[in-house]
Automatic annotation (TrEMBL):
It comes from Pterocles gutturalis. GO terms for molecular function: ATP binding; DNA binding; DNA clamp loader activity. This is Replication factor C subunit 5. The lineage of its organism: Eukaryota, Metazoa, Chordata, Craniata, Vertebrata. The keyword Nucleus applies. InterPro entries: DNA_pol3_clamp-load_cplx_C (IPR008921), DNA_Rep/Repair_Clamp_Loader (IPR050238), P-loop_NTPase (IPR027417), Rep_factorC_C (IPR013748), RFC_lid (IPR047854). The keyword NADP does not apply.
Length: 195
């Protein structure tokens, strides 16, 4: 159809994966690549849709929509619609539940188990939670990574100097010592708390 009517018609194809369009069509197209939207651009448009549709959305629900959509307005609108239809009110907990992402309380529990329990108990608890709530391992790991990144991020002015206890030769970097992963996580979190 496209090849037949190119003389007098213009077509606009929107796709997520360019490789899904056959090469014959790709050669006749001009490509435009759009990056993810910033929250500053997404929030006003989402608020407009929310107002027009009369959806009840809390402030934390709006933040969850923007966070989970990762700059994709179509995904944000789909999550908004699904959550509103499933729960009526769009809150952070409802958004995370509707999308199948782990709640912050789930991540806090998982980190607590990893840091404070032996491996067998932590593994069993995490597996039970994952199965009970239908969570994807990738989502759990992503949320733990985001938590650790936010928690271990250096202050805006740059990295702080090492505390006096770590200025001598006895203070080795974590990678130089063969600690178990749970011990390294504990040390990193404790180091983040040092001011």
């Amino acid at each position: 159809v496209i090849e037949k009517f190119t003389e007098n018609t213009r077509f606009c194809l929107i796709c997520n994966y360019l490789s899904k369009i056959i090469p014959a069509l790709q050669s006749r197209c001009t490509r435009f690549r759009f990056g993810p939207l910033t929250p500053e651009l997404m929030v006003p448009r989402l608020q407009h849709v929310i107002q027009e549709e009369g959806v009840d959305v809390s402030e934390d629900g709006m933040k969850a929509l923007v966070t989970l959509s990762s700059g994709d307005m179509r995904r944000a609108l789909n999550i908004l619609q699904s959550t509103a239809m499933a729960f009526g009110k769009v809150t952070e907990e409802n958004v995370y539940t509707c999308t199948g992402h782990p709640l912050k309380s789930d991540i806090a529990n998982i980190l607590d188990w990893m840091l404070n329990q032996d491996f067998s108990t932590a593994y069993r608890n995490i597996t039970e939670l994952k199965t009970l709530k239908g969570l994807a391992l990738q989502d759990i790991l992503t949320e733990i990574h985001l938590f650790a990144r936010a928690r271990l991020r250096p202050p805006p002015g740059g990295a702080q100097p090492l505390p006096p206890a770590c200025t001598n030769a006895h203070c080795l970097p974590l990678s130089a010592v063969d600690f178990p992963a749970s011990v390294r996580i504990k040390l990193l979190i404790k180091m983040a708390d040092i001011e």
